[in-house]
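REQUEST ID: PR-0412
SUBMITTED BY: lab tech R.K.
PRIORITY: routine
TASK: structure prediction, single protein chain
INPUT:
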Amino acid sequence: MGSLVVIGGLAFGGYTIESSVSLSIGALIPILILMVCFIVQSSVEEIVFRGWMLNRIAAKHGFWAGAIGNSLVFALLHIDDSVASMSMVDASIFVSMTMLFSIFLSLMVRRDRSVWGACAWHASWNWLFITWWGLPTTGIELGLQPLLVDLMPVEGAPKWLSGGAMGPEDTVFAVAVLVLGTLYYLMTKDNPKAE
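STATUS: complete
OUTPUT:
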């Protein structure tokens, strides 16, 4: 899903190739360390928001109250000075993406009846932008040599197309991919193996 976001931005002129990629064994070490860090960070967020908060609210007020409640708190905690200083359009895209991200993962947890798939999906989403494409994730730019291709936003491209300093998550492509993922979970039945 993350690659679809980047490919959409690339296809519509939001990104260009910054440099060619030639990885050495030494360049893989920071990528693997970053993978472990994102697994820990994303798993903690998923255990707190979808494992605990979603279930606590849903137990008292129903699934949708839990999904929207944990999504609102999740979105609020991802708003910092960089989001507050964005234009209204760019900030709306970021907040919409963050809410959809959380609702999508809430639906994943409900269908799978487990938080572990959401932990893995969240970690790979964060890790992919930086390590496959050389783009920031939620404003984090590490300058690592990526695995696939080193992209950068096209100068002068609208932020809704490239995400600017925030990265691909702050694009209409991220919103579109998460809408499609959410619709997929809304149209599929709960996991029959979990019953």
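NOTES: Strands lie at 15-19, 150-153.
REVIEWED BY: pending
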